Amino acid sequence: MPTLPQPEHESIELTQLEKPITARLQLRAITKRYPGVVANDGIDLCVERGQIHAILGENGAGKSTLMKIIYGAVTPDEGSITFDGEPVVIRSPHQARQLGISMVFQHFNLFDSLTVAENIWLGQDKNMSRELLGVHLDEASALFGLNIEPDRPMHTLSVGERQKVEILRSLVTRPKLLILDEPTSVLTPQAVQSLFAVLQRLAQSGCSILYISHKLHEIRQLCDSCTVIRQGKVQGVINPREHSDASLARLMIGVEPPAIPEHVAKPGAMALQVKQLNLPKSHTYGMDLQDINLHVRAGEVVGIAGISGNGQNELLHALSGEDTRASNDSIVLLDQAAGQKNTEQRRREFDLHFVPEERLGRATVPSMSLAHNLLLTRPLSTGPLGWVSPAKLRDKASDLIRRFNVKAAGSHAPARSLSGGNLQKFIMGREMDAAPKIFIVSQPTWGVDVGASAQIRAQMLQLAEQGCAVLVVSEEIEELFELCDRLYVISNGRLSPSLPLEEASIERVGLWMSGLWEGAETAQSHPLPAMATLV
Ligand SMILES: Nc1ncnc2c1ncn2[C@@H]1O[C@H](COP(=O)(O)OP(=O)(O)OP(=O)(O)O)[C@@H](O)[C@H]1O
Question: Which segments constitute the ABC transporter domain (predicted)?
């Protein structure tokens, strides 16, 4: 009698019984030294197939270095790597991609002058045709629920949108191991949830994921396994769901993060006023600013919430002086019309200091030392004839490094050698130390660990206590709730009325993020931008 064919799943189980499943990735005793610092010190790591494994550690702990080693972008000094049971030496990202390893970096690697599709194509291997890429891109976009026009030039995208392009670029390679370094720093809560759904689906299909984040609730939601690193060494492998925030912070930074001091607003004189600001977009994919009205008094901390791409960039360019097209009296600084003053004039005449969201390339010159990067916004080190005093620069940079707890080899270290969080601490320190009268900051704690976030937020509140008018643009609603006395919400190039914190709730702010505040024109008459359809 002929035997019936076995159902497919039974034969799969048999094969699995015969051949034990090997881990996707196994690192043994990985060590990497940079001048003056051991970034990775004998690290062991095991990631199973289909596992979402978190890497947790304070700023400068060595997480990104370790991920770059796995991706072949950095060569370890010692140690070995096994991938799918085979010992491998990963010499380049190209080789990593051939093995099936893909990485989303913390700092974007995108060319501003190219389009979205061209940027994604550049990251692929040579045999991927433009047509095939188009198919994969449509597939990955649909999976991610993302709708960014492939022909859009990169320079027109907000950081949140750029982050999504970076993620798409990795998804189209259909990886076996996907490494994500702080992927949610600039995503809205809703976009984070869509990303998590994608990651969970990927993991179910067998793809392993290495996930770096400073956001403990995210790690708990997504991962059941987590390797904690401190000062380049593994502290332990834990299930993050069995730990509280306090115990995770203790493992990671050795202590619990300091509590944010109580801030009682004592609003003083008007410091910053925007009156009926109308500004047409400066490029095809920009956002027209329409009838923007806002004010910040000395001593106040005021927030602007919103989904990225709704006019934040345009508003910040107009407020910082990078865009001087506004009518002169639509922006009033310390009682003077200043709409057409440039960045340097606003800094010199009104003590307005600004921290943009892009820390490498805009807030700092990556190849220049920390000391030289001070010159970008601080004239303090130039003498009467305009001579630069290298000694003064060095001293000031060293002072900031010490006071703001920046982990760096010294004032001579190039900006790009710092870990993301440490560079952010340096930039925030550089601007806050200037004792601004008006301080405008975008995403103040992007990529910063829990201890340093608490430190930065406390310092911003201290600035306000000293009479500075602080305006914070952030996509992290919790951060705005923690810091601000009042909130505005930006949607589709329009700004909501001012909302005192006592009257704000996550739900109300969420609704306003879709443009639906009381008295607003309906969303229908102003269709939401593509990104908002995500939520
Ligand atoms: N190219 C480099 N040259 C010199 N030092 C470097 C270089 N890359 C990293 N380092 C140093 O190695 C240490 C670890 O940095 P790494 O970027 O791996 O930290 P991290 O844990 O990812 O931090 P963050 O959370 O801030 O991103 C830091 O002290 C950093 O300054």
Answer: 25-256, 274-517
